[in-house]
Amino acid sequence: MQLLDGKKMASEMKTEIASEVIQFKASGGKTPHLATILVGHDGASETYVSGKVKACHEVGFKSTLVRFEVDIPENELLAKIVELNMDDDIDGLIVQLPLPPHISERNVIEAIDYRKDVDGFHPVNLGRMVIGMPSYISATPAGILEMIKRYNIPTEGKSCVVVGRSNIVGKPVSILLSRKGYPGDATVTLCHSKTLNLKEIVSQADILIAALGQAEFIKADMVKEGAVVIDVGITRIKSSVTKSGWKLIGDVKFDEVAPKCSYITPVPGGVGLLTVIALLKNTMLSAKRTIYP
Ligand code: NDP
Q: Which terminus in the chain has less CB density within 10 A, N or C?
């Protein structure tokens, strides 16, 4: 069994992006700039956003954090998005999800200029991704693909099972792995809460991607010998032994599943760290006007 080490990959990729920034600026380019909007004070969102701001500084990006109280009216949030869309210095604009229930996530995502949508959630980017056009690929699926590439994991003709069909993880990663060319050409099955015989389907996977958000749902008896297991799930549980008072648990029961795998991601230290890096890569692409000249 080999660990898919997201921490090591993230550190290598940050170094690569930092030197890309230096080269880009030396050839007359601007400092890439990511703007993040955070509504409210949700603990997990605060952690994710501070990780993004920190990563921007580490690679030499500019970062702007715009904060609103949880009761901000939707129209005020949308007005701020329009303002940031028009700011030529901002290359990437993201709104941390989830949003409070009185704000429509769909309206917010559609309000972001798709050319700055480095989260890859806008229908234009999702649509372009589906038909194989250049687009911003949402950060977690992009991180998963990068991991598969860097570890040279074969995907052609493999049976790949994705558990979870969210618009930000399960659905896009299932489409990406079934696209033509590497890392794709897999035969993909997308499972969800209404899937019948889930255990039987999952246990046939050469590549299993668990993105359902149910702590330790995938047990050893559901995993094929030699499978590649990518655990996207992050569930925060209270812990008396960590400094933060929280502990992160994946969707896979790691200790019993790992011995059966050829490759497996740990949680934490797996896919989560790559999500932030994929966001940086998309912001770099935007600063260079690579996808949308
Ligand atoms: P959502 O909560 O939006 O969706 C969960 C999906 O899992 C749904 O499609 C749901 O089915 C399915 N599901 C739930 N329970 C079961 C079950 N018992 N059997 C089969 N399918 C089930 O998930 P997200 O994609 O937003 O997040 C998934 C997990 O990944 C979470 O733990 C989240 O924290 C984590 N995450 C991690 C990221 C990272 O950076 N590593 C980034 C984003 C998310 P149905 O559609 O039928 O309801």
A: C
Choosing from 5, 119, 206, 231, the catalytic residue is: 119
Question: What are residue 38's DSSP bridge partners?
Answer: 67
- Whether the CA torsion 283, 155, 193, 130 is positive or negative: it is positive
Atom of ligand 1 nearest to the CA of 168: 25
What are the domain boundaries of the chain?
24-122, 139-272
- Fold of the 139-272 domain: Rossmann fold (3.40.50)
Residue 211 alpha carbon to ligand 1 centre in Å: 5
pLDDT tens readout for residues 103-151: 999 999 999 999 999 999 999 999 999 999 999 999 999 999 999 999 9
Report the predicted TM-score, pTM, of the whole model to 2 decimal places.
0.95
CATH of 24-122, one of 3.30.1490.190, 2.40.160.100, 3.40.50.10860, 1.10.645.10: 3.40.50.10860
| Residues 226, 261 contacting (CB under 8 angstroms) | yes
Q: Is 7 labeled as catalytic in the residue annotation?
A: no
DSSP for residue 104: -
Residue among 212, 230, 265, 275 whose CB has most ligand 1 atoms within 8 A, to mutate: 212
